[in-house]
């Protein structure tokens, strides 16, 4: 009689990297001198995940990459901002789907990320079990099918590319089968935070769903590495147009020279700079906020110092769900000194 032997599927290389992520204060202390009690206070509210790849890019405690990845006590001691400044919950007809504009929706299909960015505008949701599940995805798909005015679907999370190839294929297939859905978009930070996930198999699968667009998210030139370059090369070779939505962050990239280097390096890996966002007024992120004038100063210095290809639109997503508004140095003419936009 042959006994049954339970087998386990071997982890892919990117899954092995992710499985070794730092999630506890004592693990972080092995790499940086950190106050474990303070870190624990923060992650009791806002989870931590720093995978070994992104950890390897951090050069010094307090540098631009460190600030994005490592919890800061200010996340819970500074109370400015609100949990949902863009009113996503108020604009959600079903859980996990935001319908702000008539012809397009934001559809959350994952609640986890390869790294939990400390400035995330969904700190209230990311890293929490049950926020996104099979039922919420089913409801979202049903809503999209029943609303013929929806022609553009942006998949977000969490990070959609942390789903398995199979789960992602099934969701994309269901969306592509809806006659009125014309455009599919994916918002992901994976090419930056875990580029090993962008395998040839994944890129080949994605190219079967054109027109498909990917907006990724790099904030600092040090995030552009041989690994991230290879990941973006695979996506671009699959015919996917790549854009970057960066966020202006105090102590990370609020410097014209850093921003110029970032924009130039993005173009070299076939990513078109798309948006530079003023940071949202999210509770727990106020230590990252900059003034609007700082962003306008950076844009002004970039103009003429780099090609139009490397010029992102400086945007603010108005609090209260008012939508995105472009800002440019000339727009401030007529405002009195000290007057807020």
What is the straight-line distance between the termini? 77 Å
Biggest β-sheet strands, sense, barrel: 9 strands, mixed
CATH architectural type of the largest domain: Alpha-Beta Barrel
Secondary structure tally: strands = 9
Fourth-level CATH superfamily of the largest domain: Aldolase class I
Q: What general outline do the C-alpha atoms trace?
A: globular
Helix content: 25-40%
Secondary-structure-based class equals alpha/beta
Number of domains: 2
Tag the structure with descriptive keywords.
about 15% strand, 2 domains, about 350 residues, alpha/beta, disordered C terminus, TIM Barrel, disordered N terminus, 13 helices, 9-stranded mixed β-sheet, globular, 9 strands
How is this fold's topology laid out?
Layout: H1 13-19, H2 25-28, H3 36-43, H4 52-57, H5 64-69, H6 74-77, E1 97-101, E2 104-108, H7 134-146, E3 152-156, H8 165-176, E4 183-187, H9 190-193, H10 200-206, E5 212-216, H11 226-237, E6 241-248, H12 256-268, E7 272-278, H13 292-302, E8 313-318, E9 323-327
Parallel strand pairs: 2-3, 3-4, 4-5, 5-6, 6-7, 7-8
Antiparallel strand pairs: 1-2, 8-9
What features would you describe in this structure?
The structure is a single chain. This protein is of the alpha/beta class and 341 residues long. It folds into two domains: 13-77, no CATH class; 97-332, Aldolase class I (TIM Barrel), CATH 3.20.20.70. 31% of the residues lie in helices and 15% in strands. The protein has 13 helices and nine strands. The protein has a nine-stranded mixed sheet with strand order 1-2-3-4-5-6-7-8-9. The N and C termini lie far apart (77 Å). Residues 1-5 and 333-341 have low confidence and may be disordered.
């Amino acid at each position: 009689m042959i006994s049954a032997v339970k087998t386990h599927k071997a982890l892919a290389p990117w899954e092995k990297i992710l499985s070794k992520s730092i999630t506890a204060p004592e693990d972080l202390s092995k790499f940086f001198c950190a106050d474990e009690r303070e870190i624990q206070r923060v992650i009791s509210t806002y989870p931590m995940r720093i995978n070994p790849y992104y950890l390897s890019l951090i050069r010094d405690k307090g540098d631009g990459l460190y600030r994005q990845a490592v919890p800061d006590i200010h996340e819970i001691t500074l109370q400015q901002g609100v949990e949902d400044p863009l009113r996503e919950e108020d604009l959600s007809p079903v859980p996990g789907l935001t319908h702000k504009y008539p012809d397009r929706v934001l559809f959350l299909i994952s609640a986890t990320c390869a790294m939990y960015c400390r400035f995330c505008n969904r700190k209230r949701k990311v890293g929490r079990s049950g926020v996104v599940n099979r039922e919420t995805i089913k409801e979202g798909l049903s809503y999209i099918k029943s609303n013929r005015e929806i022609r553009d679907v942006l998949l977000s999370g969490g990070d959609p590319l942390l789903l398995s190839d199979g789960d992602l294929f099934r969701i994309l297939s269901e969306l592509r089968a809806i006659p009125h859905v014309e455009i599919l978009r994916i918002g992901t930070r994976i090419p930056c935070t875990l580029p090993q996930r962008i395998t040839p198999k994944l890129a080949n699968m994605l190219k079967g769903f054109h027109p498909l667009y990917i907006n990724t998210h790099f904030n600092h030139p040090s995030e552009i590495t041989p690994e991230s370059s290879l990941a973006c090369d695979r996506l671009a070779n699959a015919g996917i147009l790549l854009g970057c939505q960066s966020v202006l962050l105090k102590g990370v990239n609020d410097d014209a020279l850093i921003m110029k280097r970032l924009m130039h390096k993005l173009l070299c890996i076939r990513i078109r700079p798309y948006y530079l966002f003023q940071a949202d007024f999210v509770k727990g992120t106020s230590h990252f906020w900059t003034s609007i004038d700082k962003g306008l100063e950076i844009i002004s210095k970039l103009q003429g110092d780099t090609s139009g290809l490397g010029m992102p639109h400086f945007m603010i997503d108005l609090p209260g769900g008012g939508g995105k508004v472009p800002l440019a140095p000339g727009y401030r003419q007529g405002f009195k000194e000290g007057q807020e936009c």
